[in-house]
Write a structure and sequence with these properties.
A six-stranded parallel beta sheet has the order 6-11-10-9-8-7. A four-stranded antiparallel beta sheet has the order 3-5-1-12, with helices on one face. The protein has 284 residues and is α/β, with parallel strands linked by helices. It is 42% helix and 20% strand. The chain contains ten helices and twelve strands.
Length: 284
Amino acid sequence: MYDQVTLSLNVDPYILSALKEDISSEDVSTNSVMPHPQAGEVDLICKQDGIICGLQVFERTFTLLDPNTQVTFYAADGDAVTAGQLIAKVHGDIRILLCGERTALNYLQRMSGIATYTHSVASLLSGTKTKLLDTRKTSPNNRIFEKYSVRIGGGNNHRYNLSDGVLLKDNHIGAAGGVKEAVSMAKAYAPFVRKIEVEVENFDMVKEAVEAGADIIMLDNMSHEEMKKSIDFIDGRAEVEVSGNVTKENIAKLTDLGVDYISSGALTHSAPIMDLSLKNLHAV
């Protein structure tokens, strides 16, 4: 759950922007059929099995439109839910319920989809020491929601943004002139509290990264045999992350490596939404 400071400063502006996108001047459909205030209630129904996530954001969408809106929840973020289950009841001005419906569901469906997919991937690493990480491959302006959803699904967050840590990728290394040069420059520039991670693509780069004193070495799109050889060479002198087109379908093939981390952009860029719906709207 987001704390009050994060909610007010970092979450609310995005929700308000999404609402403004959907209501540029007025909700013509709602104002046509509901010209005056009328108290009402609607049910939030789950239409498929999964992990629910984003209930606070769902509620906030309505309360930003009208703070008098009340939501009664019958589940919490991280709960496994099933098709047909009543997740919540939303009570308030029917005009508000209609205006906020799509935006609230868009967030909840997307966040629950990511949590559900992440849960299915993380379960394949159960019993190993390897942590599942997300990436920065998030949809623009939704990172705060999508990375939260990964955590709820049982995954872990890699760096939040470019200010959050040093990750020297192929183009950084090319710009610096080599792995050793890039690591040396990063150590001279970055605050000492920042770990330095280097993305490598072959065994020669692994050797350079170790000799340069990298804290984390990411083995990117390497063959299984070359990854094993690299891990043996690193021999605990750096933490090891594996990355490169990791999905639910192939992650099990990596569990024997015993690495510290496996990162997967698919957690955020390829998770399908979870089907949810607001039904049974009626006046009270």
